[in-house]
Design a protein that fits this description.
The protein has six helices and five strands, in the order E-H-E-H-E-H-E-H-E-H-H. With 136 residues, it is α/β, with parallel strands linked by helices. Strands 2-1-3-4-5 form a five-stranded parallel β-sheet, sandwiched between helices.
Length: 136
């Protein structure tokens, strides 16, 4: 089982992500805002974190920065998870410290494999997966 933390304010999106990933061996923990996400990241020790870049309480870049600054999550794969899919948004997410970028809506057929690929590349030391292999 892969422990995944989803920091996402849209509950419908969170339910859909859990429904898609659970049969593929992911245990999805949902945080509806950035502050809760930061707390859960310390409590559950996820193996990968998906961060919506447009959260109601903290900007996604702030959440990513705080995750990168915390000893428990500094080296985890973090994926920008957002409806904004411009090339600029991707560049900014990578510059903020994300390892990859996946735009919403997701392709439910490829989403689990995209996340496994991010984790594999991260383990190999290949950060910024979005540059080498654009994830949508």
């Amino acid at each position: 089982m892969v422990t995944l933390l989803l920091i996402e304010d849209d509950h419908n999106t969170a339910r859909m992500v859990a429904k898609v990933l659970s049969p593929h061996g992911f245990e999805v923990h949902h945080a509806p805002n950035g502050l809760t996400g930061l707390r859960l990241a310390r409590e559950i020790n996820p193996e990968i974190i998906l961060v919506d870049m447009d959260l109601p309480d903290l900007e996604g870049k702030v959440v990513v920065s705080r995750l990168r600054g915390a000893p428990d999550s500094a080296r985890l794969p973090i994926v920008a998870f957002t409806a904004e899919c411009s090339a600029r948004a991707k560049r900014l997410a990578l510059a903020f410290g994300c390892d990859a970028f996946i735009s919403k809506p997701i392709d439910t057929r490829t989403f689990p494999e995209q996340l496994r690929e991010v984790m594999a590349k991260h383990r190999e030391g290949n950060t910024h997966v979005g540059k080498a292999n654009p994830l949508h």
